Protein backbone atom coordinates (compact mmCIF):
# COMPACT_ATOMS: atom_id res chain seq x y z
CA UNK A 1 0.00 0.00 0.00
CA UNK A 2 1.23 3.48 -0.88
CA UNK A 3 0.57 5.26 2.41
CA UNK A 4 1.82 8.75 1.56
CA UNK A 5 0.43 10.35 -1.58
CA UNK A 6 1.67 13.73 -2.81
CA UNK A 7 3.66 14.26 0.39
CA UNK A 8 0.52 14.22 2.56
CA UNK A 9 1.74 12.66 5.81
CA UNK A 10 -1.27 13.53 7.96
CA UNK A 11 -2.17 10.38 9.88
CA UNK A 12 -5.82 11.39 10.25
CA UNK A 13 -6.13 11.87 6.49
CA UNK A 14 -4.40 8.58 5.73
CA UNK A 15 -6.64 6.66 8.12
CA UNK A 16 -9.91 8.08 6.80
CA UNK A 17 -10.07 10.14 3.60
CA UNK A 18 -7.39 8.15 1.81
CA UNK A 19 -9.21 4.91 2.61
CA UNK A 20 -12.48 6.34 1.28
CA UNK A 21 -10.79 7.56 -1.88
CA UNK A 22 -9.29 4.10 -2.44
CA UNK A 23 -12.76 2.54 -2.61
CA UNK A 24 -13.21 1.50 1.03
CA UNK A 25 -15.77 4.10 2.09
CA UNK A 26 -18.42 1.43 2.74
CA UNK A 27 -16.06 -1.07 4.33
CA UNK A 28 -16.40 -1.58 8.09
CA UNK A 29 -13.50 0.16 9.83
CA UNK A 30 -14.61 -0.48 13.40
CA UNK A 31 -17.02 -3.06 14.77
CA UNK A 32 -17.80 -1.95 18.29
CA UNK A 33 -18.88 -4.80 20.56
CA UNK A 34 -20.38 -3.74 23.88
CA UNK A 35 -22.29 -5.78 26.48
CA UNK A 36 -25.63 -4.73 24.97
CA UNK A 37 -25.10 -4.22 21.25
CA UNK A 38 -22.84 -4.34 18.22
CA UNK A 39 -22.28 -1.15 16.20
CA UNK A 40 -20.53 -0.91 12.86
CA UNK A 41 -18.68 2.20 11.65
CA UNK A 42 -17.50 2.36 8.05
CA UNK A 43 -14.52 4.31 6.79
CA UNK A 44 -17.01 6.92 5.57
CA UNK A 45 -18.37 7.16 9.14
CA UNK A 46 -14.82 7.49 10.45
CA UNK A 47 -14.15 10.29 7.95
CA UNK A 48 -17.25 12.36 8.68
CA UNK A 49 -17.19 11.85 12.46
CA UNK A 50 -13.54 12.87 12.74
CA UNK A 51 -14.23 15.86 10.46
CA UNK A 52 -16.92 17.01 12.89
CA UNK A 53 -14.38 16.86 15.72
CA UNK A 54 -11.82 18.76 13.63
CA UNK A 55 -14.31 21.55 12.95
CA UNK A 56 -15.51 21.62 16.57
CA UNK A 57 -11.94 22.03 17.81
CA UNK A 58 -11.24 24.80 15.32
CA UNK A 59 -14.41 26.56 16.50
CA UNK A 60 -13.05 26.38 20.05
CA UNK A 61 -9.87 28.12 18.99
CA UNK A 62 -7.60 25.09 18.89
CA UNK A 63 -4.57 25.76 16.70
CA UNK A 64 -1.76 23.76 15.14
CA UNK A 65 0.49 22.43 17.91
CA UNK A 66 -2.08 22.80 20.72
CA UNK A 67 -2.42 19.81 23.01
CA UNK A 68 -5.76 17.99 23.16
CA UNK A 69 -6.04 15.33 25.86
CA UNK A 70 -8.45 12.40 25.66
CA UNK A 71 -9.33 10.93 29.05
CA UNK A 72 -12.16 8.50 28.43
CA UNK A 73 -12.51 4.71 28.44
CA UNK A 74 -12.49 2.82 25.15
CA UNK A 75 -15.40 3.99 23.01
CA UNK A 76 -16.09 4.89 19.37
CA UNK A 77 -15.86 8.58 20.31
CA UNK A 78 -12.24 8.10 21.39
CA UNK A 79 -11.29 7.13 17.82
CA UNK A 80 -13.18 10.06 16.29
CA UNK A 81 -11.58 12.54 18.70
CA UNK A 82 -8.08 11.20 18.13
CA UNK A 83 -8.33 11.33 14.34
CA UNK A 84 -10.07 14.70 14.29
CA UNK A 85 -7.43 16.23 16.53
CA UNK A 86 -4.48 15.21 14.40
CA UNK A 87 -6.29 16.21 11.21
CA UNK A 88 -6.00 19.87 12.24
CA UNK A 89 -2.33 19.36 13.19
CA UNK A 90 -3.07 19.67 16.89
CA UNK A 91 -1.35 17.13 19.16
CA UNK A 92 -3.41 14.26 20.58
CA UNK A 93 -2.61 12.75 23.98
CA UNK A 94 -4.64 9.77 25.21
CA UNK A 95 -4.43 9.08 28.94
CA UNK A 96 -5.29 5.77 30.60
CA UNK A 97 -8.79 6.13 32.03
CA UNK A 98 -7.86 4.45 35.33
CA UNK A 99 -5.35 7.18 36.28
CA UNK A 100 -5.84 8.92 39.62
CA UNK A 101 -5.58 12.63 40.29
CA UNK A 102 -1.82 12.71 40.91
CA UNK A 103 -1.01 10.82 37.71
CA UNK A 104 -3.37 13.08 35.77
CA UNK A 105 -1.93 16.26 37.22
CA UNK A 106 1.63 15.28 36.30
CA UNK A 107 0.73 14.63 32.69
CA UNK A 108 -1.80 17.40 32.13
CA UNK A 109 0.45 20.04 33.61
CA UNK A 110 3.50 18.89 31.67
CA UNK A 111 1.57 18.64 28.39
CA UNK A 112 0.08 22.13 28.75
CA UNK A 113 -3.23 20.65 27.62
CA UNK A 114 -5.64 23.23 26.19
CA UNK A 115 -8.71 21.02 25.67
CA UNK A 116 -9.65 17.83 27.50
CA UNK A 117 -12.28 15.23 26.60
CA UNK A 118 -13.70 13.11 29.42
CA UNK A 119 -16.99 11.60 30.62
CA UNK A 120 -19.33 12.31 33.51
CA UNK A 121 -17.89 9.54 35.67
CA UNK A 122 -14.30 10.82 35.40
CA UNK A 123 -15.08 14.55 35.43
CA UNK A 124 -14.66 14.90 39.19
CA UNK A 125 -10.98 13.96 38.92
CA UNK A 126 -10.34 16.81 36.50
CA UNK A 127 -12.33 19.31 38.53
CA UNK A 128 -10.24 18.50 41.61
CA UNK A 129 -6.97 19.42 39.88
CA UNK A 130 -8.18 22.07 37.44
CA UNK A 131 -7.00 25.00 39.64
CA UNK A 132 -3.45 23.72 39.09
CA UNK A 133 -3.83 23.57 35.29
CA UNK A 134 -3.64 27.16 33.99
CA UNK A 135 -3.41 26.06 30.33
CA UNK A 136 -6.61 23.98 30.38
CA UNK A 137 -9.33 26.16 28.85
CA UNK A 138 -12.26 23.82 28.27
CA UNK A 139 -13.48 20.34 29.16
CA UNK A 140 -15.74 18.44 26.76
CA UNK A 141 -17.92 15.72 28.31
CA UNK A 142 -18.73 12.98 25.82
CA UNK A 143 -21.88 11.69 27.55
CA UNK A 144 -23.36 14.97 28.83
CA UNK A 145 -26.79 16.06 27.64
CA UNK A 146 -26.07 19.78 27.93
CA UNK A 147 -23.32 22.27 28.79
CA UNK A 148 -22.54 22.54 32.49
CA UNK A 149 -20.94 25.96 32.01
CA UNK A 150 -19.13 27.96 29.36
CA UNK A 151 -16.01 25.94 30.19
CA UNK A 152 -17.54 22.47 30.57
CA UNK A 153 -19.26 21.60 27.31
CA UNK A 154 -21.38 18.73 26.01
CA UNK A 155 -19.84 16.73 23.18
CA UNK A 156 -23.21 16.17 21.53
CA UNK A 157 -23.89 19.88 21.13
CA UNK A 158 -20.47 20.60 19.65
CA UNK A 159 -20.69 17.76 17.17
CA UNK A 160 -24.25 18.52 16.09
CA UNK A 161 -23.24 22.09 15.23
CA UNK A 162 -20.13 21.09 13.26
CA UNK A 163 -19.80 20.34 9.56
CA UNK A 164 -18.83 16.83 8.52
CA UNK A 165 -16.67 18.23 5.70
CA UNK A 166 -13.07 19.22 6.36
CA UNK A 167 -10.08 19.72 4.09
CA UNK A 168 -7.02 18.38 5.87
CA UNK A 169 -4.06 20.74 5.42
CA UNK A 170 -0.97 19.45 3.68
CA UNK A 171 1.08 18.00 6.53
CA UNK A 172 4.87 17.64 6.24
CA UNK A 173 6.48 14.58 7.86
CA UNK A 174 7.95 16.29 10.92
CA UNK A 175 4.77 17.99 12.17
CA UNK A 176 4.05 16.71 15.73
CA UNK A 177 1.10 14.33 15.98
CA UNK A 178 0.84 12.34 19.21
CA UNK A 179 2.15 12.85 22.74
CA UNK A 180 2.75 9.67 24.73
CA UNK A 181 3.85 9.49 28.36
CA UNK A 182 6.10 6.91 29.97
CA UNK A 183 4.66 4.92 32.86
CA UNK A 184 6.46 6.94 35.54
CA UNK A 185 7.84 3.81 37.21
CA UNK A 186 11.36 5.32 37.47
CA UNK A 187 10.41 8.90 38.31
CA UNK A 188 8.14 11.54 36.85
CA UNK A 189 6.41 10.40 33.64
CA UNK A 190 8.17 11.74 30.57
CA UNK A 191 6.41 13.00 27.47
CA UNK A 192 7.50 11.53 24.14
CA UNK A 193 6.39 13.52 21.11
CA UNK A 194 5.76 11.63 17.86
CA UNK A 195 5.46 13.15 14.39
CA UNK A 196 3.22 12.33 11.44
CA UNK A 197 5.90 10.41 9.53
CA UNK A 198 5.70 7.73 12.23
CA UNK A 199 2.88 6.37 10.08
CA UNK A 200 5.53 4.97 7.73
CA UNK A 201 6.95 2.63 10.38
CA UNK A 202 3.55 1.87 11.90
CA UNK A 203 2.10 0.73 8.58
CA UNK A 204 5.25 -1.16 7.61
CA UNK A 205 5.48 -3.08 10.88
CA UNK A 206 1.74 -3.73 10.93
CA UNK A 207 1.93 -5.30 7.48
CA UNK A 208 5.23 -7.14 7.75
CA UNK A 209 5.18 -8.30 11.37
CA UNK A 210 1.44 -8.84 11.86
CA UNK A 211 1.14 -10.28 8.35
CA UNK A 212 -2.05 -8.36 7.64
CA UNK A 213 -3.99 -8.89 4.42
CA UNK A 214 -6.96 -6.91 3.18
CA UNK A 215 -9.75 -9.25 4.30
CA UNK A 216 -8.41 -9.88 7.82
CA UNK A 217 -10.57 -9.23 10.87
CA UNK A 218 -8.30 -7.72 13.49
CA UNK A 219 -8.63 -7.28 17.26
CA UNK A 220 -6.21 -5.38 19.48
CA UNK A 221 -6.95 -5.60 23.20
CA UNK A 222 -4.43 -2.92 24.22
CA UNK A 223 -5.82 0.23 25.83
CA UNK A 224 -5.38 3.38 23.69
CA UNK A 225 -3.88 5.03 26.77
CA UNK A 226 -0.64 3.22 25.95
CA UNK A 227 1.55 3.58 22.89
CA UNK A 228 0.82 0.11 21.53
CA UNK A 229 -2.92 0.80 21.66
CA UNK A 230 -2.42 3.85 19.44
CA UNK A 231 0.16 2.49 17.01
CA UNK A 232 -1.45 -0.93 16.55
CA UNK A 233 -4.98 -0.36 17.79
CA UNK A 234 -5.60 2.72 15.65
CA UNK A 235 -2.99 3.86 13.16
CA UNK A 236 -1.88 0.42 11.93
CA UNK A 237 -5.29 -1.04 11.11
CA UNK A 238 -6.94 2.15 9.84
CA UNK A 239 -4.01 3.10 7.61
CA UNK A 240 -4.31 -0.33 5.96
CA UNK A 241 -8.06 -0.05 5.52
CA UNK A 242 -8.89 -3.28 7.33
CA UNK A 243 -11.75 -4.11 9.67
CA UNK A 244 -11.03 -4.18 13.35
CA UNK A 245 -13.17 -5.38 16.22
CA UNK A 246 -13.09 -3.71 19.60
CA UNK A 247 -14.77 -4.56 22.88
CA UNK A 248 -16.16 -1.93 25.21
CA UNK A 249 -16.68 -4.04 28.33
CA UNK A 250 -14.52 -5.32 31.16
CA UNK A 251 -12.37 -8.42 30.87
CA UNK A 252 -14.59 -11.48 30.74
CA UNK A 253 -13.11 -14.73 29.41
CA UNK A 254 -16.46 -16.03 28.14
CA UNK A 255 -17.09 -12.79 26.23
CA UNK A 256 -13.56 -12.74 24.80
CA UNK A 257 -13.80 -16.32 23.54
CA UNK A 258 -17.22 -15.52 22.05
CA UNK A 259 -15.87 -12.46 20.22
CA UNK A 260 -12.96 -14.44 18.79
CA UNK A 261 -15.36 -17.09 17.51
CA UNK A 262 -18.39 -15.06 16.42
CA UNK A 263 -16.48 -12.20 14.80
CA UNK A 264 -14.13 -14.65 13.06
CA UNK A 265 -11.03 -12.76 14.22
CA UNK A 266 -8.06 -13.74 12.06
CA UNK A 267 -5.34 -11.59 13.64
CA UNK A 268 -5.42 -11.06 17.38
CA UNK A 269 -2.98 -8.75 19.16
CA UNK A 270 -2.99 -9.16 22.94
CA UNK A 271 -0.71 -9.47 25.96
CA UNK A 272 0.88 -12.57 27.53
CA UNK A 273 -0.96 -11.77 30.79
CA UNK A 274 -4.30 -11.89 28.97
CA UNK A 275 -3.39 -15.22 27.35
CA UNK A 276 -2.47 -16.73 30.72
CA UNK A 277 -5.77 -15.50 32.20
CA UNK A 278 -7.72 -17.01 29.32
CA UNK A 279 -5.88 -20.33 29.65
CA UNK A 280 -6.91 -20.48 33.28
CA UNK A 281 -10.54 -20.24 32.18
CA UNK A 282 -10.47 -22.72 29.33
CA UNK A 283 -10.46 -26.46 28.93
CA UNK A 284 -7.27 -26.28 26.83
CA UNK A 285 -4.14 -27.74 28.44
How is this structure best summarized?
With 285 residues, the chain is α/β, with parallel strands linked by helices. The protein has helices at residues 11-15, 17-24, 43-59, 76-87, 101-111, 123-129, 155-160, 198-208, 227-239, 253-262, 272-280; strands at 28-33, 38-42, 67-70, 91-94, 115-118, 138-141, 152-154, 176-181, 191-195, 217-220, 243-247, 267-269.
Name the average pLDDT: 94
Uncertain segments are none
Number of helices: 11
CATH topology: Rossmann fold
Q: Approximately what portion of the residues adopt beta-strand conformation? A: 15-25%
Number of domains: 1
Strands of the widest sheet, in order across it, are 2-1-11-10-12
State the distance separating the first and last CA atoms.
40 Å
CA-based shape: globular
Top-tier CATH class: Alpha Beta
How much helix, percentage-wise, in residues?
A: 25-40%
**Gyration radius, in Å:** 18 Å
Give me the CATH architecture, please: 3-Layer(aba) Sandwich
Order of helices and strands: HHEEHEHEHEHEEHEEHEHEHEH
Structural class: alpha/beta
Summarize the main sheet.
5 strands, mixed
Count the E strands: 12
Oligomerization? single chain
CATH superfamily: ANL, N-terminal domain
Amino acid sequence: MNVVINDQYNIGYICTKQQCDSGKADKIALRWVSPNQVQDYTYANLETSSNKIANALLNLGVNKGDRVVIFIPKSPELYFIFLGTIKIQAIACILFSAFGEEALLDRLKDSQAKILFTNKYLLHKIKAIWPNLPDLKKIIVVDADSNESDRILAYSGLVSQSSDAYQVPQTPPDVPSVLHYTSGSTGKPKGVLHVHRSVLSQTATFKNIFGIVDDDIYWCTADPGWVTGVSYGMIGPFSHGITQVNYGGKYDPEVWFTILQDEKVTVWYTAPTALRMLMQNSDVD
